[in-house]
Give the backbone structure.
Amino acid sequence: MKTKLIALILLISVSAIGQINFEKGYFINNENQRVECLIKNNDWKNNPTEFKFKLTENVEEKTGTLTTIKEFGITGFSRYLRADVKIDVSPADLISLSKERDPEWSQERIFLKVLVEGKAKLYYYEKDKLIRFFYSVSDSTINQLIYKQYYVENDQTAENFKFREQLWNNVRCADAGLNSVENLRYSRTELERYFKKYNGVEDSHTEAYTEKKKQNLLQVRITPGLNYSGVTVSNGDIPNLYTDFGNQLNFRIGVQAEYLLPFNKNKWGILFDPSYQYFNSSGQRGSETIKIKYQSIEFPIGLQHRFYLNENLNVFLNALFITSISIDFNSTISDLEIASGNCLALGGGIGYKKLSTEMRYYSNRQLLYKYVYWDTVYQRFSLILGYRMR
């Protein structure tokens, strides 16, 4: 049965990966020719160094790079501009912060994401933990807005807020006071608001390139289903104490919360999947009848990845960690108190609009992990139905 599940997951993966979504867009090449095309929208978290495009729907895909493309965009979604800039490459990780207040400059060619356009333009760059904002005014040279966190004495941190001075000197509304920049944070939300306000006051053409609003980042589902599970118990010191409680088909119910990560077209999600399940049975140990009464609410947490086939249909894979923290309702095996250990789960399924169905395999979970000499084998396969409430 395990082999069949693995084969199902592989089949889902292969079929899903083959589905490629291209959206209407354009690019401008080195000869300043604007070419309308279809661009594969990866909803990049890190700024791309290349992108895939098709000139028409049924032709072979090609690759645009920093060498060949000056600008590209996806209609109504995003725009990227090639720029040769000085960028501060100082470490952003707290563990690796430098002790220098000034930026550590590197000359690089990158695609900058356009956030706000008008007389003053705001651009964005992200690579791993490095986040930088750039700006230009009236088509001047593109420069980085400088912000840096660094170490001082006794491992204390300090901050270089040079970007506030840059904005005060170069992107200042005529009637603005110093308080308009002195508390400004180096964040996308606040900088976008500042530049849009400046462009509005300056009475220039202004446009914000903000992705289509990502709806329902938090999704909640009711997840009833069936567990096919079995339990055996053995004692390493006394072989005669082995008991097989057989296999059962039982009901399970859960409430699943998923937070969709706001990049890569919402393909990745963090799952929290508390669920109730039970297993009540008896087995023979010689002439003695041994009973198991097991009821539990467990709290799996993990990741889910979707492959969107169209607007309404997707397939998904997930991987979950089930912690030993659970509610076991005074469950017992004979006179031994059940205390559940950790285990893992792998699943795959299909979602259609608000409905979903999933097959999930659980690794062995120790039910008597507090008892040194006792060993249990508790394994499950689950068929889980889902209905999204929001």
